[in-house]
């Protein structure tokens, strides 16, 4: 399949009162047309900043310092704000956690969907309302005509997320960026939302990047996985390859944690060892927490390099880790 998205050497930082804090530190990741990719990692690893940076949505005190985001070969970061507005919501759509915060509390749901439809197409208001009703029906909202007249506070959290998904897929979206789409929802509603999103994406042949802290979700709904740690992608692989032979010690930790949660064993919420190394420090950011680190890890940053076709990891001992010859 052809490459749809390529993020190359992407760097971003937060400029606060205490100075510059690097958040993305040379992210490299790609997505083929029609593919589903899960991006996983602990809170603070840079996942949300990455998806917002892809669409040029970072605002001061956030700043993109360098890198490229190639979509169909065109660098989105080189486009003007007016050019990006033609991409956002029409070609690439974003869903976010806490959907209520991204719906205008003063506007009815129908008006908000109609505004999205009319922003990117020459459609009459009456036809837009008819299309909005179809979209609400498609995302499983009962009595969609009545719900068009509802305000966001009159809907449940799950319904609000369905509205956000309907807005995201209002046009012939080619890429959906779903950032923790089930945050704050109970398990049953979360499953319904994920099933809905998966079916809509598959039926429309839309590519999907699903950001999650839940490896089980990524295993079930994605074809490939990319692991983020300290603002870098440290491993990419197909989902079967990843779970059969993860090659980065941090990936191994995430898999163990997910297995512990599934088996109802005590779950270690964080990685053992010292805190994350500063991005500007020499060596691998994971070295101070890694059980298999050696001297080179503390002085040299490993590159994200192939182990097998379609499987890459940024670890000097990736072959040994993947083969299970050393513990991680």
For the largest beta-sheet, the strand count, sense and barrel status come to: 8 strands, mixed
Helical proportion? 25-40%
| Strand segment tally | 12
Mean pLDDT: 90
Which regions have little confidence, pLDDT < 50, spanning 5+ residues?
Answer: 265-270
Q: How large, in whole angstroms, is the Cα Rg? A: 21 Å
Outline? globular
* Protein structure class: alpha/beta
Number of H/I helices: 11
Order of helices and strands: EEEHEEHEHHHHEHEHEEHHEEH
- Order the strands across the largest sheet as they lie in space: 6-7-8-3-9-10-12-11
The fraction of residues assigned to DSSP E strands is: 15-25%
C-alpha end-to-end distance: 34 Å
Would you kindly provide a written description of the structure presented here, covering whatever features stand out?
With 328 residues, the protein is α/β, with parallel strands linked by helices. Helix content is 33%, strand content 24%. It has eleven helices and twelve strands. It has helices spanning 47-54, 81-87, 109-120, 125-138, 144-147, 157-168, 187-204, 215-221, 239-245, 249-262, 318-323; strands at 3-16, 19-32, 36-40, 62-71, 74-75, 92-95, 175-179, 207-212, 224-229, 232-238, 305-308, 311-313. Strands 6-7-8-3-9-10-12-11 form an eight-stranded mixed beta sheet, with helices on both faces. β7, α7 and β8 form a beta-alpha-beta unit. α3 (109-120) packs across α4, α4 (125-138) packs across α6 and α6 (157-168) packs parallel to α7 (187-204). The longest helix has 18 residues, at 187-204. The protein is globular and about 65 Å long. The two termini are 34 Å apart. Mean pLDDT is 90; it is low at 265-270.
